[in-house]
Automatic annotation (TrEMBL):
UniProt family annotation: Belongs to the FAD-binding oxidoreductase/transferase type 4 family.
Keyword Nuclease in record: no
Protein name: FAD-binding oxidoreductase
Source organism of this protein record: Psychrobacter glacincola
Annotated keywords: FAD, Flavoprotein
Keyword Ligase among UniProt keywords: no
SUPFAM superfamilies: FAD-binding/transporter-associated domain-like (SSF56176), FAD-linked oxidases, C-terminal domain (SSF55103)
Domain FAD-binding PCMH-type, residue spans: 124-309
InterPro entries: Alkyl-DHAP_Synthase, FAD-bd_oxidored_4_C, FAD-bd_PCMH, FAD-bd_PCMH-like_sf, FAD-bd_PCMH_sub2, FAD-linked_Oxase-like_C, Oxid_FAD_bind_N
Taxon lineage: Bacteria, Pseudomonadati, Pseudomonadota, Gammaproteobacteria, Moraxellales
Length: 578
């Protein structure tokens, strides 16, 4: 036992490489920039994240995936120079190009043409971008954005608001059409503008990325607490416009609870959304504008509800005998109001995969032997949880939660506590794995939803089966596993990760993904689960939205957007199919 502990402790330090849990910081070349927006030229033009950061996958983890999907072969990737040659001449009129905020530089246009969806990765690696924006504007103030939208109206432009470009649902991709396209990148509006200590409201430029939000608040002793896995690069404006949810939403709330109000520049004028603590004055404009995905206008300044920095923050892991009992612990904890900041439950396949992907064979053996000796079988599931607050409050929450864990036969201890810390240290490095797997010909994507507790099992099964069988016509296996990522009293979100083999070229690999995506999306169209809990709608989910909102619901949403944007110049085709 002490040997196992020391093995895990050793591997949990940044100086070492392999770790027992997938998300760790050891396999990287540089730390994530925790202070300011990352300049776009320091990010990968055809993949995730900072060019100086990589994450290795253990040979033994890759072997596990290949044991499901078969032998893989890497897809070719084109070079930046090759793609730059395909960027056409800008169609923007000189009245726009002569603005000091606007660039028609080819690399700027290329770097703002795609997000992080699977089709985006195929386009970027295959070199077939299809369409580029005709220019990219970098406004520095609300007044700049107002001028841009006025000129866009005068010159009949399409306008695409761009936050961090981390969309995984095709939110920011320009489409073919006769109107010139101006992408409005918010990266220069990244400052804390005002902090009302009494009301705990911080006003930020909407283009502020996660680390820059927290670093600027931290100097005043505050925190927002919104940590999507894309935190390194995604922005306040993108979170609000796509209704994001962070890993600690249980403690800090979803973006809906954090966004108090702000300024939205629309083609019909500037809308100031008041930041009342609550209001009974009719339909809530704040709610109505969240989730508009760039179709209503551009958020320029946003008022966020912030909290004091917690005195203590802890992340822990427990192993449970099986999914059923793990799920019961989550449900009871949230329904009993135990003040945890996060709860996540991996199913048995995901638990096994995580343990493989983050370990060497000897580490895996050591952990498996330890868990087996404590009575857990291959049905075991991994539960990750956290507390964030003052020490007394955390202690109380952990005491109550430990009681629940014990009642349900959990395995916890120093080793699992270390695993929790390792997870916390490395949680924003996980997206880097996608590039590593891509290089091996292993394609990976995710799919997520939310449903009530009484539908969780049925929905997870439907989603996984749909994904696993989607390539049966080609005789291809898809490996899939799921976790519950966010919990509510009423239900929870389900997040499925799947792996499949690259085909012989980019087009047929995309066609494989399309089959999987369609099968997974259709498995939700029964009215009990949403098409997205956190990634938003974009273009990829738009065809499935009517199944959830109904014809009248789509009409109401569409009419509301048209009232702000009658010419449909703001990001058309996103959210609602036009
Ligand atoms: C690796 C990875 C992990 C992820 N994990 C999570 C997660 O844990 N939780 C989660 O919620 N999401 C997650 N996402 C999805 C994505 O990060 C979110 O949708 C996020 O909210 C997008 O923010 P962004 O700033 O990158 O916006 P973008 O991708 O640039 O834009 C998204 C949408 O918002 C609009 N928009 C952006 N800024 C503005 C603005 N200022 N005004 C008006 N409209 C605007 C755009 O037009 C577009 O429609 C993940 C994505 C990746 C790649």
């Amino acid at each position: 036992m002490s040997k196992i502990k020391s093995l895990i402790r050793k591997t949990a330090t940044p100086a070492n490489t392999n770790n027992p849990i997938l998300d760790n910081i050891a396999n990287s070349d540089a730390p994530i920039n925790m202070t300011a927006n990352t300049p776009i030229e320091q990010t990968r033009w055809n993949g995730w994240g900072n060019i100086n950061i990589n994450k290795k996958v253990s040979a033994h983890g890759a072997k596990l995936i290949k044991s499901h999907i078969g032998k893989t072969k890497k897809l070719n990737s084109v070079s930046l120079a090759q793609v730059l040659k395909t960027v056409p001449k800008s169609r923007l009129p000189t009245a726009i190009t002569e603005l000091k905020t606007v660039s028609i530089d080819q690399e700027d246009r290329l770097r703002h043409a795609r997000g992080q969806s699977f089709p985006d990765w195929i386009a970027m690696h295959g070199g077939d971008f299809e369409v580029f924006p005709d220019g990219v504007a970098f406004p520095e103030s609300t007044a700049d954005v107002e001028i841009l939208l006025k000129l866009a109206s005068e010159h009949d432009l399409i306008v695409i608001p761009f936050g961090g470009g981390t969309s995984v649902a095709g939110h920011i991709n320009p489409q073919k059409g006769s109107r010139p396209i101006l992408t409005v990148a918010m990266s220069k509006m990244a400052q804390l503008i005002d902090l009302d200590n009494e009301s705990q409201i911080a006003t930020f430029g909407a283009g502020t990325q996660g680390p820059a939000v927290e670093a600027q608040l931290d100097t005043h002793g505050y925190r927002l607490g919104h940590y999507p896995q894309s935190w390194e690069l995604s922005t306040l404006g993108g979170w609000i416009a796509a209704r994001s949810s962070g890993q600690q939403s249980l403690g800090y709330g979803r973006i809906e609870q954090m966004f108090a109000g702000g300024t939205l520049v629309t083609p019909q004028g500037t809308l100031n959304i008041a930041d009342f603590p609550a209001s009974a004055a009719g339909p809530d404009l704040r709610e109505m504008m969240m989730g508009t995905e760039g179709r209503a206008g551009i958020f320029t300044e946003v008022k966020m509800r912030v909290q004091h920095q917690p005195e203590e923050e802890l992340f822990k892991v427990a192993f449970m005998p099986n999914w059923e009992v793990g799920k019961e612990v989550l449900r009871q904890a949230v329904q009993k109001n135990i003040r945890l900041s996060m709860l996540r439950l991996s199913n048995a396949v995901e638990t096994d995969a995580h343990l493989h992907l983050g370990t060497t064979p000897s580490q895996f053996l050591a952990i498996s032997t330890y868990l087996k000796a404590r009575g857990l079988s291959s049905d075991k599931v991994m539960l990750t949880y956290g507390v964030s607050g003052d020490k007394a409050q955390n202690k109380l929450a952990l005491t109550e939660f430990n009681k629940l864990l014990k009642q349900q036969g959990s395995v916890t201890g120093k080793i699992t506590d270390i695993m929790g810390s390792v997870w916390a240290h490395g949680r924003f490095k996980f997206p880097y794995l996608r590039g590593t797997l891509w290089e091996k010909g292993i394609m990976v994507d995710t799919f997520e939803t939310a449903t009530n507790w009484n539908h969780i099992d049925e929905q997870m099964q439907q989603m996984q089966e749909a994904v696993q069988n989607a390539l049966a016509d080609e005789g291809e296996e898809v490996m899939a596993f799921t976790h519950i990522s966010h919990v509510y009293k009423q239900g929870a979100s389900l997040y499925t990760t799947y792996f499949f083999r690259a085909a012989q070229d980019h087009a047929s690999t995309l066609s494989r993904w399309q089959k999987i995506k369609h099968a997974a999306s259709s498995s939700l169209a029964n009215g009990t689960a949403t098409i997205s809990h956190q990634h938003g709608v974009g273009r990829d989910h738009a065809p499935y939205l009517a199944a959830e909102k109904g014809k009248l619901g789509i009409q109401v949403t569409s009419d509301m957007l048209k009232s702000l944007d009658p010419e449909q110049r703001m990001n058309p085709g996103v959210l609602i199919e036009d």
